[in-house]
């Protein structure tokens, strides 16, 4: 559609450029119609001339579609507004009030995508107008917004200062904004505040001088990070399970196979003398207390010498690195080698053929190694102290009876190492074998003695706590001839859960003995503290239950509610803005019932109540908006009439659009009770020139009623001191 199409008859178009069909489709209940209309609206915006567009009224109309249920509608509407802002440029500053009225409801939307496109629109407005008026609005309204909107306002400020550096006069308000953000117990708000703080300090380092201690605690200095090598991954070995016995499948701890670089020796020593295993690609050596055992492979390694010298702190004879035999290096020359008392590193039988050895680490290592195929190199340590070597039990059996004694309390104790074992083998690996062979193949070596536990005797004399039988039918436990003390168990008491009771029961006075006894009556007294404590509870279910109970008390105990009306109303304020829609609905319904039944009692504190409800009316949820509007109407209708009219005659031009609509509607309802028409002219002039069509409609209704009551009202307007634009708009209504 070309520009000439709009020059033909602009009166047939809505807001100067929207055809009637597109306008109707935008208000359709069908998603498809709204999406198509939003796309057509974007196309029309790109081709329309700026002089035909009524931007102020268009923003009021299109505001609810910025947070529509369909996100595609939201996106096209946001692109439309951005295109119009770019067309108007700096002239968009005249429509800042209309823009603010649609921005904050969209920032409170629960969908993050809607909030992001709203922030983008705010940044576009600030860049096109080259002004910080929207930044000042964000700083002023920050504390009054919910956490979702606070996080997005911080993001907007962060995005804006990256493109335009604000004047120094904004440094102090931004610092206060950050201080308030860090006091909010919300992760998203704090994350956005930290990003803004880092960006702002980087762009303007002078802001550090005005930062509070709380902000400085969140300031991250640029500290070079040390590169830590990543831990090598451990691949589990492939283990054939079919050849193992059931006990071995569940009781055996299978080793893992860590990947270790070649020619890299890892060594560790414990201060308690327990052995530590160090492994290279081709060798394993052990360091025990008082001595170091070296394998033939390790003797020929060029990197073993400095490691051993670091332990003994003295030069080593070169001969130990030349031979092929296994050498013992004493660490302290003045003391003879002693038999270390610890669990064996490797234990193997004295059979001449090579066998697989279970390589399990010590308790302090917590490291597993793969099984090793060993040769016949064996070293016997302190053989003089082990006369029992003649026994054939040369294998350290983990499941032997000596390590798992059967005790009468039927509890398994952890295995205790035997003080002296047979031999310690320093082994030479031939190749890594990732598979574990069938351990039950060699019955002579891996014979596991099965342990069978005795059955636990039944516990005697246990009385059931809850029984479905009567006392006479309760089955008695059988008695056994076992000499064990009986157990006496105290019967358990079960209390059924009861709902919260808000009544205190007072005991009636005692009757003297000389008087005749009469039936005792229980006097009920309502517990106000319990209701208030539940309204302040951190559990929304309790709050909802207390609000429902309060609604019932309005009918059942009117005097009680009237005496505590102010307390109940102020306790309901936080509940009306709850993120729980059900709780907010219950609280507003309770507030509506209070306003309907105790309208005149709201007079002393009606202004605080109305200010709170005028904030709730900005909610994006329609039913919350409707309930808040009903509460405002009932309160203004129920309180003292002169007080209500004086409140409505105040200047409300800086309030949001929805608030002005509600106040103008109540003004049109109560204008019949105005006795001084001169006092109403200024407010009517403000309402009749408002950007919202609903406000102007309510103003015309009020003018009609005033002209019927005061026949000279037209002449009063002509002689009033209001500006010419307002006077002309008022006179056009006659």
UniProtKB/TrEMBL annotation:
A GO CC term assigned to this protein in UniProt: cytoplasmic microtubule
Classification of source organism: Eukaryota, Metamonada, Parabasalia, Trichomonadida, Trichomonadidae
Domain TOG: 12-238, 515-731
Pfam family, one: CLASP_N
Superkingdom field: Eukaryota
GO BP term, example: microtubule cytoskeleton organization
GO MF assignments: microtubule binding
Protein's name in the database: TOG domain-containing protein
């Amino acid at each position: 559609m070309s520009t000439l199409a709009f020059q033909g008859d602009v009166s047939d178009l809505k807001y100067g450029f929207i055809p009637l069909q597109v306008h109707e489709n935008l208000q359709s209940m069908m998603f498809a119609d709204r999406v198509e209309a939003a796309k057509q609206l974007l196309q029309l915006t790109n081709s329309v001339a700026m002089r035909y567009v009524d931007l102020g009224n268009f923003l009021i109309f299109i505001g609810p579609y910025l947070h529509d249920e369909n996100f595609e509608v939201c996106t096209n509407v946001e692109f439309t507004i951005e295109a119009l802002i770019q067309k108007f440029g700096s002239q968009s500053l005249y429509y800042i009030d209309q823009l603010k009225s649609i921005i904050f409801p969209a920032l409170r939307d629960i969908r993050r995508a809607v909030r992001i496109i709203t922030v983008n629109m705010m940044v576009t407005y600030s860049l096109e107008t080259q002004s910080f008026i929207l930044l000042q609005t964000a700083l002023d309204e920050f504390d009054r917004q919910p956490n979702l909107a606070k996080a997005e306002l911080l993001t907007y400020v962060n995005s804006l200062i990256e493109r335009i550096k604000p004047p120094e006069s904004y440094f102090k308000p931004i610092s206060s904004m950050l201080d308030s953000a860090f006091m909010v117990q919300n992760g998203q708000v704090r994350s956005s505040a930290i990003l803004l703080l880092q960006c702002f300090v980087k762009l303007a380092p002078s802001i550090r001088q005005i930062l509070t201690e709380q902000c400085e605690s969140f300031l991250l200095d640029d500290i070079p990070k040390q590169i830590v090598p990543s831990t090598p991954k451990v691949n589990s070995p492939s283990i054939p399970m079919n050849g193992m016995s059931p006990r071995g499948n569940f009781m055996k701890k299978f080793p893992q196979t860590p990947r270790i670089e070649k020619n890299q020796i890892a060594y560790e020593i414990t201060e308690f003398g327990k052995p530590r295993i160090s492994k290279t690609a081709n060798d394993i050596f052990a360091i025990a207390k008082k001595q170091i055992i070296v394998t033939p492979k390790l003797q020929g390694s060029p990197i073993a010498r400095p490691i051993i010298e670091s332990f003994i702190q003295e030069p080593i004879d070169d001969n130990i690195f030349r031979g092929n035999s296994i050498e013992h290096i004493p660490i302290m020359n003045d003391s003879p080698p002693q038999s270390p008392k610890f669990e064996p590193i490797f234990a193997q039988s004295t059979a001449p053929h090579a066998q697989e050895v279970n390589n399990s680490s010590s308790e302090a290592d917590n490291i597993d190694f793969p099984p090793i195929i060993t040769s016949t190199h064996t070293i016997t340590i302190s053989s003089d102290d082990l006369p029992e070597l003649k026994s054939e039990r040369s294998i350290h059996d983990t499941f032997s009876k000596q390590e798992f004694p059967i005790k009468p309390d039927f509890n398994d104790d952890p295995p205790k190492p035997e003080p002296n074992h047979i031999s310690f083998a320093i082994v030479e690996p031939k190749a890594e074998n990732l598979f574990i062979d069938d351990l039950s193949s060699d019955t002579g070596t891996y014979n596991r003695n099965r342990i069978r536990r005795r059955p636990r005797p039944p516990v005697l004399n246990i009385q059931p706590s809850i029984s479905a039988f009567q006392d006479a039918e309760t089955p008695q436990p059988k008695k056994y001839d076992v000499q064990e003390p009986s157990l006496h168990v105290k019967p358990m008491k079960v209390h059924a859960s009861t709902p919260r009771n808000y009544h205190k029961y007072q005991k009636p006075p005692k009757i003297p003995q000389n008087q005749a006894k009469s039936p005792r009556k229980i006097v009920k007294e309502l517990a106000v503290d319990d209701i208030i404590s539940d309204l302040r509870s951190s559990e929304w279910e309790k709050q909802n239950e207390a609000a429902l109970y309060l609604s019932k008390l309005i009918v059942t105990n009117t005097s009680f509610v009237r005496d505590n009306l102010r307390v109940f109303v102020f306790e309901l304020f936080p509940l009306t803005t709850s993120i729980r829609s059900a709780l907010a609905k219950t609280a507003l319904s309770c507030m509506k019932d209070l306003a309907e039944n105790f309208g005149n009692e709201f007079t002393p504190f009606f202004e605080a109540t109305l200010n709170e409800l005028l904030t709730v009316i900005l909610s994006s949820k329609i039913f919350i908006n409707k309930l808040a509007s009903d509460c405002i109407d009932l309160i203004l209708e129920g309180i003292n009439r002169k007080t209500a009219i004086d409140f409505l005659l105040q200047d409300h031009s800086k309030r949001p659009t929805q608030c002005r609509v509600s106040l103008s509607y109540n003004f049109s309802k109560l204008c019949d009770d105005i006795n001084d028409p001169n006092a109403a002219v200024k407010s009517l002039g403000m309402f009749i020139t408002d950007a919202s069509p609903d406000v102007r409609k309510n103003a015309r209704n009020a003018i009609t009623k005033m002209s019927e009551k005061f026949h000279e009202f037209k002449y009063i307007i002509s002689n009033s001191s209001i500006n010419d634009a307002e006077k002309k708009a008022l006179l056009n209504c006659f």
